[in-house]
Amino acid sequence: MPAKKALITGITGQDGSYLAEYLLSMDYEVIGMIRRSSTMSFERIAHFQDRVTLVSGDLADEVSMLTILKEHRPNEVYNLAAQSFVQTSWGQPVFTGETTALGVTRVLDAIRMADPEIRFYQASSSEMFGKVHEVPQRETTPFYPRSPYGVAKVYGHWITVNYRESYGMHATSGILFNHESPRRGLEFVTRKITNGVARIKCGLDDALYLGNLDAQRDWGYAADYVEAMWRMLQQDSPNDYVLATGETHSVREFCELAFSVVDLDWEKYVRRDERFFRPAEVDLLVGDPSKAAALLGWRPSTSFEDLVAMMVTADVDRVRKGLV
Ligand code: NAP
Ligand code: F7E
Q1: Per-residue pLDDT averaged across 258-267, rounded?
Q2: Domains of the chain
């Protein structure tokens, strides 16, 4: 049987890099869409770059999507590309809407025109639940987004459902709660903390400046989550699935644990900084992954404690090698 072919938008991001590795391990032919930049940063994909085909395109440009689909004829498209940083979405609300919301329609419409049999995965987000209507959040929980990013993801989710219902497309939405790794961008709170811990431990910094320590998140490990994305597209029918651990922890707890990994007391180093508070906050997220467990046989395999230790250890190693 010929190998399956998958197109990943956002292959240079955290999830894109793990998903590409996972699909390669299953003998897929992987096409990765990258956008033009004056400096190319392939940090997360350098170790397997020679095993994937990189093609140029942008979610802002439907023609580029259509051309890629017609030329490469993938069986599956994973739409992971987005302006994904919530804080930035207040400063760049229109750009966030263009990419994170309308970008989804561009991909779906390009698929509809090139080959509506292509299976489609949309990277939806727990940020859609925002000011939560119920605890824990599940597929049926109403949305109440609290940022331009969250609003854009609600659009992306519903346009995916709409193309499924309008055109019978195999279009699936994975509603993923926060998932982290040593490849997480440095601006997100988990990686900001673990990188800060490593720099303090190695004597490069003497403080870490953070915003709201009371926010609570359901944090899992990114490599566990990309496997479930693949499982979703192997189902006979498209659907919506929550992926989460079912546990929630505050930013304060994350700090306490991360500093303790290197035997430091977090209270001596963490300072509050108004710049990192948000105009509207999502106070508490905790997901119910029972549908994914029942239909996909998926369960997260990495505990909160192991995730924090993994990220701190990786950052200490990087800092010691002079890499961060
Ligand atoms: P990430 O590390 O920020 O990666 C985002 C990717 O999107 C990068 O490859 C980026 O390319 C690409 N991109 C941005 N704008 C683009 C555009 N206009 N055209 C083409 N590519 C573009 O994000 P992530 O954490 O891997 O998340 C993957 C997806 O899941 C995102 O859609 C995110 O919103 C969603 N999500 C993430 C989480 C989470 O906890 N990580 C949870 C729920 C949903 P460059 O490298 O060129 O910037
Ligand atoms: O913030 C608080 C902040 O930026 C988590 C994205 O992947 O997950 C991510 O969005 C919490 C917030 O992630 C700082 O106020 C405190 O309550 O790590 P974050 P996020 O906003 O939850 C969802 C599911 C996505 O879909 C997104 O793409 O931490 N916080 N102090 C801080 N956050 C940051 N970034 N920096 C601080 O200094």
Answers
A1: 98
A2: 5-179+220-243 (3.40.50.720), 185-218+248-284+303-320 (3.90.25.10)
